[in-house]
Recover the amino acids of this structure.
């Protein structure tokens, strides 16, 4: 082989090799994609190398981080060479700074340091990548922004009887655990398809195979891709999690999302997850959960609670968003290539060992170390798992910013919170609830009324799932509801199912207790004053005479706004099938119409309108808008027959202040604990 050394600004443009026997030439430019394969198990190399040898596009580089047995590296490199797979490196991971047993984050970071490409795919063991994987991945990032995330549908298959060689599963020197090795697509070879990954969301598993890339909330690391730049901004994966197992996906996605939320430019693009429906990867079922240190995963020391604790701390700037690793990933590509080259050991053009002393050091502050200690507590104290169910159209959810949204964030100090939008459900079909969730939560908190989707979900859960938990001797989930909507009078089933009811007004509390005086009821509502920038009312003449902000529903009585004179605006949220009809009626009457505005727009409307008008009945909405309008010193007009809003208005005028989301949070914490641990707060 002939070696050519090329000086480039990126330190890893190190060695270009001309392979005479294959006529393949490595160029001076970095490849478009690095594929990082991490493993600490026997086998896996046949599945990896055979599928990569069949890729429709071959201009990628493969980096293997194998922490099981260094003695098999030479044989694996020969395997790759025979298949003409462009192997960049096969090494053990860099020395760990935390944790002793696990090390997936450290292993991925090792690959990131050695990567030269602008985009990086991480692949775990015994995952077959379809032939178009590289081609489709490169295509995606040519068409989308750099700081998004890409994953792929996951299909699980079972090896044919006798194909999985159990003696090989304990052989640390083997390159395969199958006899014979896997050399073709398992599904094409007729292997049994067991299932799709049951954590995938409906938008993925109902559309698999379509020639589309779709935005989605689901992101998994059996195979996933992101830009090297995004990893550098995050300083790689947080190696503090290497004390336990799993959570790489959340480690990347959640931190990227939080970073995006804090950035002023294009925040919605940072960390946004996409899925390539046309490129499902195949996970070969080979796990064994036993006492063997080689194969035990997930069940023995999961990071599930550690990661949730870290994320909660990040929400309040109490844990660093940039991973507190003891090196700087961003500075790696700023190093001189000759300096780094002197720390690499190559054999036949492949990096086989590394002197890691070249890594740029990052000194942790005392605060960083203290935060690490807090986050690494086994369960971060006792924080119950709470899932919050809500029904919101995607357009309305995108503009969701109010006191409730801030309160849900503040609740993370007290509970592990999961937010689940179930707006996709059609109650007229009486659907079977699809519980594709990790069933570890203690409390389900719904937002809606007694005919809504959250109420339906909770009653179904109580009827179908709680009995199963009882049979297993598992703690039953408990339930509460924050009432929002016209149907706020409980029936006997609701009175029995729900442990606590949270209402917005004293009027609602009376309606709840009218037939069931012993119900556990809390009354609270709060705004997020930060969103409203409460500096007083604008001096210029109002641009609108009347503005209504509420729900497009009959209980909002849009006909009363139509009867008003002047410039009128109705801004609201779709809640049922009548909503678009009501919108058209308003437009036909000359009323301006907008969908539910975000906080900035609501603030403008409060201050640019002569009157903030509340035509709705007592069964309608309006509590949040009333409190916000009061905080903005708006002129308020409430219809005489709306006892609920008149009472709420008078109560806060007498108090002399409008409650904020912190006060709302304090009440909700008491409400939830009144069910989770009755008497604990007394």
């Amino acid at each position: 082989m002939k070696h050519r050394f090329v000086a480039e600004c990126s330190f890893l443009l190190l060695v270009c090799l001309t392979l005479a026997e294959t006529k393949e030439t490595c160029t001076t430019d970095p490849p478009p994609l690095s594929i990082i394969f991490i493993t600490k198990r026997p086998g896996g190399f046949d599945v990896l190398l055979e599928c990569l040898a069949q890729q429709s596009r071959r201009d990628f580089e493969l980096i293997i981080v194998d922490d099981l047995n260094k003695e098999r590296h030479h044989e694996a490199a020969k395997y790759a060479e025979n298949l003409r797979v462009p192997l960049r490196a096969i090494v053990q991971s860099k020395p760990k700074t935390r944790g002793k047993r696990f090390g997936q984050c450290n292993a991925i970071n090792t690959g990131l340091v050695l990567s030269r490409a602008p985009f990086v795919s991480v692949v775990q063991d015994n995952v077959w990548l379809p032939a178009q994987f590289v081609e489709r991945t490169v295509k995606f990032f040519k068409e989308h922004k750099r700081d998004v995330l890409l994953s792929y549908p996951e299909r699980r298959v079972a090896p044919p009887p006798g194909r999985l060689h159990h003696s090989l599963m304990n052989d640390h020197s083997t390159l395969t655990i199958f006899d014979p090795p896997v050399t073709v697509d398992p599904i094409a070879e007729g292997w049994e398809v067991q299932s799709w990954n049951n954590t995938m969301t409906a938008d993925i598993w109902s559309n698999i195979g379509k020639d589309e890339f779709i935005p989605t909330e689901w992101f998994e690391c059996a195979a996933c891709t992101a830009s090297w730049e995004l990893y550098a901004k995050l300083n790689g994966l947080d190696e503090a999690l290497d004390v336990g197992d799993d959570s790489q996906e959340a480690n990347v996605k959640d931190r990227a999302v939080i970073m995006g939320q804090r950035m002023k430019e294009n925040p919605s693009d940072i960390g946004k997850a996409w899925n390539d429906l046309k490129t499902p990867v195949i996970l070969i079922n080979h796990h064994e959960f036993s006492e063997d240190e080689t194969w035990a995963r997930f069940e023995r020391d999961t990071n599930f609670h550690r990661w949730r604790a870290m994320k909660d701390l990040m929400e309040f700037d109490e844990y660093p968003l940039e991973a507190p690793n003891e090196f700087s990933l961003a500075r790696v590509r700023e190093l001189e290539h000759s300096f780094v080259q002197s720390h690499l050991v190559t054999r036949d053009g492949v990096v086989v060992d590394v002197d890691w002393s070249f890594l740029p050091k990052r000194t942790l502050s005392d605060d960083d170390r203290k935060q690490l200690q807090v986050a690494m507590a086994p369960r971060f104290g006792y924080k119950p798992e709470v899932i919050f169910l809500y029904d919101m159209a995607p357009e309305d959810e995108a503009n969701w910013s109010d006191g409730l949204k801030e309160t849900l964030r503040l609740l993370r100090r007290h509970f592990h919170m999961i937010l689940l939008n179930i707006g996709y459900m059609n109650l007229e079909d009486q659907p079977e609830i699809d519980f594709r969730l990790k069933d570890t939560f203690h409390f389900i908190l719904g937002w809606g009324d007694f005919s809504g989707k959250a109420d339906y979900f909770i009653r179904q859960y109580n009827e179908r799932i709680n009995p199963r938990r009882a049979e297993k001797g598992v703690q039953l989930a408990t339930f509460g509801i924050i009432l929002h909507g016209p149907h706020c009078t409980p029936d006997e089933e609701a009175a029995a199912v729900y442990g606590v009811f949270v209402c917005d007004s004293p009027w609602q509390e009376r309606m709840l207790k009218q037939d069931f005086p012993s119900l556990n009821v809390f009354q609270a509502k709060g705004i997020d004053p930060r969103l409203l920038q409460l500096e007083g009312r604008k001096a210029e003449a109002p641009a609108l005479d009347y503005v209504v902000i509420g729900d497009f529903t009959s209980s909002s009585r849009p006909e009363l706004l139509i009867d008003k004179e002047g410039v009128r605006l109705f801004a609201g949220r779709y809640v049922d099938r009548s909503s678009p009809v009501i919108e058209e009626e308003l437009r036909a009457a000359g009323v301006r119409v907008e969908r539910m505005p975000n906080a900035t727009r609501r603030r403008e409307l409060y201050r640019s309108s002569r009157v903030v008008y509340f035509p709705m009945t007592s069964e309608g909405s309006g509590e949040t808008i009333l409190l916000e309008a009061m905080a903005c010193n708006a002129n308020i007009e409430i219809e005489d027959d709306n006892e609920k809003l008149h009472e709420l208005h008078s109560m806060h005028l007498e108090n002399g202040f409008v409650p904020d989301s912190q006060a709302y949070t304090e009440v909700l914490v008491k409400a939830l604990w009144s069910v989770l641990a009755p008497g604990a707060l007394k």
Q: What stands out?
A: The chain has three domains: 2-371, 385-526, 534-658.
